[in-house]
Amino acid sequence: MQRKKYMLTLTELKTLLATPQRIVITTHHKPDGDAMGSSLGLYGYLIQKGHHVKVITPTDYPTFLHWMPNNGDVIIFTEQQEAAARLVEEASLIFCLDFNTLSRINELGELVRASGAKKIMIDHHLEPEDFDDYRHWDINACAAAQLVYDFIVNQLQDGGLINKDVASCLYTGIMTDSGSFRFPSATSEVYRIAANLIDLGADQSKIHELVYDNSSENRLRFLGYCLSNKLEVLRDYNTAIISVTKEELAQYHSITGDTEGVVNYALSINGIRLAALIIERPDKVKLSVRSTGDFPANEICKKYFNGGGHRNAAGGAAEKPLNDVVNEFKSILAEYKEQLIA
Ligand code: 5GP
Ligand code: MN
After folding, report:
1. pTM over 0.85
2. Which of 261, 256, 260, 333 is nearest to 297 (CA)?
3. Residue of the nearest CA to atom 13 in ligand 1?
């Protein structure tokens, strides 16, 4: 890729990190396990080096991630805008984890762009925007947390500082983004990294329980409602769709994180190659799209819903009534019929 400007070398970055810096770590809107795991993992490493570090998330995130070490130090931009803006402005380094376009961090994006800080991108999504000064980017990585591990261990050669807290956070990111080590991205190398993290103190069984067996009763009943009342299976296209209105979310007292993972149940039906969860949010309709094999979920999201993502896990949005979005999604399927029934 052609880069326009002067890039920071690893040696220069190491020199910067050798003295205390004012560091902000940020990650994408509605952070998931990898966003929080990579951010808090890097945080746990950097504080040991004597830096002044803050993690700033653009929005809140699911309660099943609140157990993570140093979660209490996270600043949520929408709740503390002035304090967050000041930290971004005064930072000397900003780490951007698990995203690669500034639009993914909402209003925080323009503040990051305007900051004089050196920006370090650690990410595994396609098509990065050219806003960074140092880039550790690999679309083959199963998680940003895997790249943070590689950054600390192989680039900074500081693996000795991966303590139990750091290991637990990085393990969480890898576990959640690899679908509990089952996606094709979960290579033998990923298993070796996970094994190292377990040796370094990550309690894999406990972490799995904290993340996946931590649902509220409302959340589980909402899932049951979606599966029995809202699931539409379009056998002609090997596609399954679940759509949810604002009223249905309210009826189940849905909170951030409650809809996460629902789309995977639709994809788990035998023969289904494409699944979408289409949700009416206050300001727009959000789509979560998943696929199996080489079917490009991200292409549909990019082409029709102003979004993107990975081949098998992507998302987008539309500013139209929910029903229109559902119908638009269905109408698109004809174009992909051959691939969907292959
Ligand atoms: P989720 O469905 O879990 O919200 O998102 C799955 C993946 O799709 C994310 O990891 C991210 O890569 C991508 N994604 C979700 N929403 C958007 C969006 O609005 N724009 C872009 N570019 N990517 C998205
Ligand atoms: Mn990720």
Report:
1. yes
2. 333
3. 309
